[in-house]
Each structure stands twice: as structure tokens, then as C-alpha cells.
Specification:
The chain has 87 residues and is mainly α. It has one domain. It contains four helices and no strands. The chain has helices at 2-32, 37-64, 68-71, 77-86. Helix 1 (2-32) packs antiparallel against helix 2. The N and C termini lie far apart (44 Å).
Length: 87
């Protein structure tokens, strides 16, 4: 019971931190930069990279916590890398 609670707590805190971060970046950018298409384009590019990074971290943490759906492939990246380096 306790490990499941710890995992759910970690996920919930991560969502809260990411949401707060996105909010403050949005508020800062809309109040300190002049209006125009360049501001929205820059925010869109930054937002895309930020969400991709958060997705990467989510997958990495899920694998570290032992998510069976992400670790059950027949050939993992680590096995592929090790076989290339051994030959």
C-alpha cells in the first residue's frame, strides 16, 4: 500500500510543479514582452520543447519505478547498446 501511495504522491506533486511553472512562464511572458506574433511563436516553441522534456522525464521515471508496459519489450535499448559495444 505504501509504495503505491508514494508513487501517486510523486505523480501528483510533479503535475502541480509543472502546472505552476507553466502558469508563471505564461504570466511573465505576457506581461514583460510586447504584443506580436513573435512573442506567441517563441512561447509556442518553448512550450513544445518544455512539454517534450516533461514527457521524456515522465517516461524515464515510469521506467525507473518499474512500469511493466514500458519495460516489457523483447529487445530493450540497453541490450541493443551492449550488443553493439561487445562486438
Amino acid at each position: 500500500m505504501l509504495p503505491r501511495f508514494n508513487k501517486l504522491t510523486a505523480v501528483a506533486l510533479s503535475v502541480v510543479v509543472i502546472s505552476i511553472n507553466i502558469y508563471f512562464v505564461g504570466v511573465y511572458a505576457t506581461t514583460n514582452f510586447p504584443d506580436g506574433w513573435l512573442k506567441y511563436f517563441g512561447l509556442s516553441i518553448f512550450g513544445l520543447f518544455y512539454l517534450m522534456f516533461c514527457t521524456y522525464l515522465t517516461v524515464h521515471v515510469a521506467i525507473s519505478m518499474g512500469a511493466p508496459c514500458l519495460t516489457s519489450s523483447s529487445v530493450s535499448l540497453a541490450d541493443t547498446w551492449q550488443s553493439k559495444n561487445l562486438n
